[in-house]
Write a structure and sequence with these properties.
The chain has helices at 3-22, 35-41, 73-87, 96-114, 125-129, 135-144, 146-150, 169-184, 229-247, 253-278, 283-310, 321-334, 338-352, 359-376, 379-382, 385-400, and strands at residues 47-54, 57-62, 155-161, 164-165, 187-196, 199-208, 211-217. The protein folds into two domains: 3-281, no CATH class; 285-400. Strand 6 (199-208) and strand 7 (211-217) form a beta hairpin. Helix 11 packs parallel to helix 14. It is α/β, with parallel strands linked by helices. Strands 1-2-7-6-5-3-4 form a seven-stranded mixed sheet, with helices on both faces. The longest helix is centred in the C-terminal third of the chain and has 28 residues, at 283-310. It is globular and about 70 Å long. The protein has 16 helices and seven strands.
């Protein structure tokens, strides 16, 4: 399609949406109003998940505009956060027109940036108009969009997948500082757009007096917080059938596994934020825990479990040291190189704060280190560089951990 024609089409659609939207008045609610009360009491709002872990913490998932096609979720997430910051009218939460007006506003802003960039990914017109909200696009919109800036609120971005926070430590520290300020005030709010596995979702947290209310938005409207495994299976079957009608095929095994993982991750990260904002834990402690458990899980899977499966019987206890050394060296070369152990484990734990390591995780690391020392014996005698370097890592690990009782 000719670029001038494409631009005219986008401008025309944008103007049409503006005309329709502003031809009718949408009532706005005061920003100090408790959103959970608005949603709970309005006959126009549908709550599809509700969790009340205590008298002071409430998690709600209202129905929002339902996403029909993959790839646009970032635009839905941004629209839902802006709904919390600007409108709070339950009648507009499930209306498509405000969503698409927001979509075209973002696309127009990104295309303006594209015109100033070289013609390479992700700043080509084709990339931008695909509808995918790349992390780079989202950050640009949050920094430069006038509607976002007019809210005077910082919308924070975190990424989470496969049970772990994937954001940089520096980003996690900044978000935790925001949570600390939030907890110190009697009335405050936080806004999050979360990249979870393969999907963008939104979370708005509001504090009224001593009560913390968390509003969770998923553009697929899957009640991951409260649905049973059987109910999620039915939802997956329905979505796969819809995919088959549109694409002519069902989901691949990989797509099914990613969907199951996404549901699990969405629930975990929302509950983690609820606990952090309520003061039951903090992001630094959670990231330290995830870092340690990821290491131990990988080690057990690729070294300990494989060694056990070999069932060596040439020694009294069935342990074959030479086999163990081979497995350990392969794990170090391909999974956790000593440089990565230093950066991803030691440096990360130090940045997060050694006081954030719980006793249980400290015990796990000590047992891991001592087990390797017992199995390997003399590291130098192996003659393998990565194993020799591992000994220095273990020395450091043991030195930074608090002494056990």
């Amino acid at each position: 399609m000719d670029e001038d024609i494409a631009l005219k089409m986008r401008t025309l659609v944008d103007e049409m949406v503006d005309d329709i939207l502003f031809s009718s008045h949408i009532e706005q609610f005061p920003l100090a109003t408790d959103i959970s009360t608005i949603l709970s009491e309005s006959p126009e709002a549908e709550i599809i998940s509700r969790l009340e872990s205590s008298e002071k913490t409430l998690v709600l998932q209202p129905r929002c505009v339902d996403q029909k096609r993959g790839g646009y979720c970032g635009h839905y997430a941004l629209r839902n956060i802006l709904w919390c910051l600007e409108e709070r009218n339950p009648a507009s939460l499930t209306q498509s027109l405000p969503l698409w007006r927001r979509y075209w506003t973002s696309i127009r802003l990104l295309l303006e940036r594209s015109s100033r960039e070289n013609n390479w990914w992700p700043w080509t017109e084709r990339d931008i108009c695909s509808g995918l909200m790349e992390r780079t696009y989202l950050e640009h919109v949050l920094r430069h969009d006038s509607q976002v800036l007019d809210t005077n609120s910082q919308i924070q971005v975190l990424q989470y997948a496969y049970g772990s926070l994937l954001s940089d430590v520096s980003d996690v520290l900044v978000v935790q500082e925001s949570i600390d300020r939030f907890r110190s005030q009697s009335q405050s709010s936080l806004s999050f757009i979360l990249g979870v596995t393969n999907h963008w979702v939104a979370v708005f947290v509001q504090k009224i007096a001593s009560r913390v209310n968390l509003i969770y938005f998923d553009s697929y409207n899957v009640p991951v917080l409260t649905a049973t495994p059987d109910e999620l299976k039915l939802i997956m079957d329905e979505k796969e059938e819809d995919h088959r009608k549109r694409k002519g095929r069902g989901w691949t095994l990989k797509e099914k596994e990613e969907t199951v993982q996404a549901y699990e991750d969405q629930k975990n990260v929302v509950l983690m934020l609820a606990h952090c904002c309520s003061g039951n834990t903090n992001l630094k402690r959670e990231m330290a825990k995830e870092t340690i458990h990821s290491l131990i899980t990988s080690f057990n899977k690729h070294v300990e479990d494989l060694q056990e499966s070999e069932k060596k019987t040439d020694t009294e206890d069935g342990f074959d040291k030479s086999e163990y050394v081979v497995l350990l060296s392969v794990w170090l070369e391909t999974r956790y190189h000593p440089k990565q152990l230093s950066d991803a484990l030691l440096d990360r734990l130090c940045q997060l704060g050694l006081d954030q390591i719980d006793d249980a995780e400290a015990a796990l690391l000590r047992a891991w280190s001592r087990n390797i020392r017992t199995r390997v014996g003399s590291f130098v005698a192996t003659g393998i560089d990565v194993i020799i370097r591992l000994e220095m890592i273990l020395d450091t690990v043991e030195s930074i951990l608090p002494q056990s009782d």
